[in-house]
Design goal:
The protein is mostly helical and about 200 residues long. The chain has seven helices and five strands, in the order ααββαβαααββα. This is Potassium-transporting ATPase KdpC subunit.
């Protein structure tokens, strides 16, 4: 009986020790370390507008843009039935469509997306549409598009903002990230940053 009590005390002691060590000490240490080494990333990689006092988004979270004087990002599903409960209340900010590429609904959605892009870009009627302008990403929240997708929209942005195409391309260039380590992936354009610069609101 005494042996069982000893084992129980040891087990409870180990449980408390590891709870304090892993649930408290480790968590506080990692939080403090990330705040010291990567404070911007640890706090959400926030993007500020105006004088730097107004938070307008994160580098890693897409926002839906549909105004003609703004750069458009990937297709976002921010109001689909899958994102709402039975009463219609939002469950998630956004997410993937979960439509099968073999289904009729997917084909209909793609046709609508292509028609929307074509109608907004008459100057590009003979150019192929970059696929990321008519499809959503795996997460449905990708904040970046390819350089090709951004370039496709340059004529519309120049027309709607009154800027020259060269000025629009310069803004896009400032908001473009290169390949990871110079070799992995493709250059990417942050949609929110471009639009803030078009509106002249990106915080310096």
């Amino acid at each position: 009986m005494e042996g069982k009590k000893t084992i129980l005390r040891q087990s409870v002691g180990m449980l408390l020790a590891f709870t304090i060590l892993l649930g408290g000490v480790y968590t506080l240490a990692m939080t403090g370390l990330t705040q010291m080494l990567f404070p911007r990333q640890a706090n959400g990689s926030l993007i500020y507008a105006g004088d730097g006092s107004r938070i307008c988004g994160s580098e890693y979270l897409a926002q839906p843009f549909e105004a003609k004087n703004h750069l458009w990002g990937r297709v976002m599903n921010v109001s689909g039935d899958a994102l709402r409960d039975k009463d219609g209340s939002p469950l998630l900010y956004g997410g993937p469509s979960n439509l099968s590429p073999a289904g009729e609904d997917f084909g209909k959605m793609m046709a609508e997306n292509v028609a929307k892009i074509r109608a907004a870009h008459p100057e590009m009627k003979d150019a192929p549409i970059p696929v990321d302008l008519v499809t959503s990403s795996g997460s449905g929240l990708d904040p970046e598009i390819s350089l090709a997708a951004a370039e496709y929209q340059v004529p519309r942005l120049a027309r709607e903002t009154g800027r020259s195409q060269a000025e629009v391309r310069e803004i896009i260039g400032k908001c473009t990230s290169g390949r990871l380590l110079g070799i992995f992936g493709e250059p990417r354009v942050n949609v929110l940053k471009v639009n803030l610069m078009l509106d002249e609101q990106l915080s310096k």
